[in-house]
Amino acid sequence: MRTMVTLACTECKRRNYTTTKNKQTLPDRFEIKKYCKWCGNHTVHRETR
Length: 49
Prior knowledge:
By secondary structure, this protein is mostly beta strands. Helix content is 0%, strand content 61%. It contains no helices and four strands. It has a four-stranded antiparallel β-sheet, with no helix packed on it.
């Protein structure tokens, strides 16, 4: 079952992206490096609750 998650930048704390994840294969918080337009470079984005 896939659920919608929101990704927030770890540096500026802005919520930039939404995506889906499979809760069975990824039970922990999702973390990926993506571009943040406010920081101006690629930063780690973490799933928010």
